[in-house]
Amino acid sequence: MVSTLGGLQSLFGGQAKGPPVTNIMFLKTHKTASSTVLNILYRFAETHNLSVALPAGLHVHLGYPRLFLARYVEGVELQQHFNIMCNHLRFNLPEVQKVMPNNTFYFSILRNPVFQLESSFIYYKTYTPAFLRAPSLDAFLASPRTFYNDSRLLKNVYAKNNMWFDFGFDPNAPREEGYVRARIAEVERRFQLVLIAEHLDESLVLLRRRLRWALDDVVAFRINARSARSVTRLAPETRERARSWCALDWRLYEHFNRSLWGQLRAELGPRRLRGEVERLRARRRELATLCLQDGGEPKNRTQIRDLRLRPYQSGRADILGYNLRPGLDNQTLRVCQRLVMPELQYMAHLYALQFPEKPRKNIPFLGE
């Protein structure tokens, strides 16, 4: 059995000053590294015995792609408020406020829309009508109106301005300057922080400060990441077409990317930021050594020995996961399992803990 007492003592050190924030709403956008952030929130909820607003019944999303309604949450009729809400939903503030306390911390995450669209095309290829008929993303973007139909919005949500849609806005709205600025201002008023996927470590440093959490609360491995072979390299003209096609997403991303770096400069400064990011990365390396086999290298589905840790596969994506080191003691094993547990399995696990009297959520692909 691997002895890890010293590693675990280090693992749970570094508490931030002040009481930690425990009422949190994370708007989980699609294909933006949001599954990694979800894992952070699920772990914190389980560790601190917090309630999570989970999808009702056998569902895995909170009504998505329909606008969120409070009734999509399991147990909402019995519990006045929940501590954490972080599953996929289309943002609808009045209904969210029925579920979350008044002092809730709201945050979300965005990704460069070019790469977000590329990821969506691969991941939702077999689900989205606009993608289904397109032989490639190049072909789709060369003539998007050949494939995309505005009237099939709820089926085609992943094909145009998907992040804008997730915030509750119209992805087919005209790019009128007054409208765009008003919607961005709306997001800014409600969300105390918007992370940026391309700068995830810097974002997590700032998130940790805002939530007053321990360093280890925000350390994470990449969850739901694709293998390099299922990532499409885009030509410069394709990238430009993607920015134009997803112009509303682009405006949202540009604004909050600038906002993030403005906040980092104001609160930390370059030197301190570099130090905080390195601390985060060093702890991640320590955890990888502690938990993961083969130096922490992600594995494809067939290489993952524990069926419970195999991630869901979608479209043409090759989603990676992890193998844990053999011989871990029980305490370390529980910590490491939480760090690598795919989101559907973790959701089902929390549901069983929170609602032991209800039927378990079924994860069909685990039996394959």
Taking the sheet with the most strands, its summary is: 4 strands, parallel
Structural class: mainly alpha
Number of domains: 1
The beta-strand count equals 4
Classify the beta-strand content into a percent band. under 5%
User: What is the CATH topology descriptor?
Assistant: Rossmann fold
Quick recap:
The protein has 368 residues and is mainly α. The protein has helices at residues 5-11, 34-47, 93-96, 113-123, 129-132, 137-142, 144-147, 162-166, 177-190, 200-211, 236-245, 247-267, 269-291, 330-340, 343-354; strands at residues 24-27, 84-85, 105-110, 193-196. Helix 2 packs parallel to helix 15 and helix 11 packs across helix 12.
Structure description:
The chain is mainly α. The chain has one domain: Rossmann fold (3-Layer(aba) Sandwich). Helix content is 43%, strand content 4%. It has helices at residues 5-11, 34-47, 93-96, 113-123, 129-132, 137-142, 144-147, 162-166, 177-190, 200-211, 236-245, 247-267, 269-291, 330-340, 343-354, and strands spanning 24-27, 84-85, 105-110, 193-196. A four-stranded parallel sheet has the order 2-1-3-4. Helix 2 packs parallel to helix 15 and helix 11 (236-245) packs across helix 12 (247-267). The chain is globular. The two termini are 31 Å apart. Mean pLDDT is 93; it is low at 1-6 and 9-15. This is Galactose-3-O-sulfotransferase 2. It holds the Pfam family Gal-3-0_sulfotr. Keywords: Glycoprotein, Golgi apparatus, Membrane, Signal-anchor, Transferase, Transmembrane, Transmembrane helix. GO terms for molecular function: galactosylceramide sulfotransferase activity. Belongs to the galactose-3-O-sulfotransferase family.
